[in-house]
Amino acid sequence: MTTMASPERWRNHGPMSAPGAGSLNFDGLPVDVAALCRIAQGVLIHSDWIAAYGVDESQFQTVSRETLPMAGRLRQIAELDGSALTEERAPDRRAVGTCRDYALMLCGMLRQQGVPARVRCGFAAYFKRDWEDHWICEYWHDGRWCRADAQLDPIIAPRLDIGFDLTELPDDMFITAGEAWRRCRAGEADPMAFGHGSQAMGLWFVRVNVVRDHHSVNGRETSDWDTWRQATAAHRILSESECAETDEIAARPAAPSAEPCPPWLTAKAS
């Protein structure tokens, strides 16, 4: 739960959350957040968890980590199976995505009903590492922001021993990237506890997520910062100016969007 900022600016669709005018849309869906999470779970499958559903990548036409705008994602879902969104698809008839796709779909469904919602980038405490790179959806309810994880369905949740309400995540189960950055900078947390699997970890990656979260709450759920895999060893050493810039973004993630340039898109001495 968080109290950051007035909710009104997150009530309407942005370019990524709008469902478009295809055969599948968000009209007439349940108002219950748990029911909306089940809808997302019935049409999406996470690229990292395919085997858990008894299928393999060869059964899918496209396996990609690209986050599509909702209009494009709904077209893709309709091409695979034109049934209503409320109809759960077999695992091999779902669109492949990542945690951000689940969060974005829940965000779009809530905004369609006039509920303020936004996609947040941060770290979850219920995966393999201490704090794993993760995306969830925040929604406005009873005068406060609540956090929901739409990805963890009855297949995944038991494997992670989830024992809490996934439509209202406890404060110690998910923190935004800005919260993680502030803890690390204050010496309250080890930066190496934060990362993305075994590929990336440390303060530089927390910075990546700080900026991705900043862009997301400003209506750009995808940005140039999604090319972080291009970062070299030299890029993973932060300068004082980069740290100071990130301090400011982490303190005010919903401030008008800044345009810090990903260092791996510029020349940097090794």
Layout of helices and strands:
Elements: H1 33-43, E1 44-46, H2 70-80, E2 95-97, H3 99-112, E3 117-124, E4 131-141, E5 144-148, H4 156-159, E6 174-176, H5 177-185, E7 194-196, E8 200-201, H6 203-217, H7 240-251
Parallel strand pairs: 1-2, 4-7
Antiparallel strand pairs: 3-4, 3-6, 4-5, 7-8
Short description:
With 270 residues, the chain is α/β, with parallel strands linked by helices. The protein has seven helices and eight strands.
Keywords:
8 strands, two-stranded parallel sheet, 14% strand, alpha/beta, 270 residues, globular, single chain, six-stranded mixed β-sheet
Class of secondary structure makeup:
alpha/beta
Distance between the termini: 41 Å
Any idea what the shape is?
Answer: globular
Give me the count of strands.
8
* Major pleated sheet: 6 strands, mixed
Count of individual helical segments: 7
> What's the average pLDDT?
92
Unreliable sequence segments:
none
As a percent range, the share of strand residues is: 5-15%
Q: From the structure provided, what is the oligomeric state, counting identical versus distinct chains?
A: single chain
Number of domains: 1
**SSE pattern, N- to C-terminal:** HEHEHEEEHEHEEHH
The whole-angstrom Rg is 18 Å
Give the % helix: 25-40%
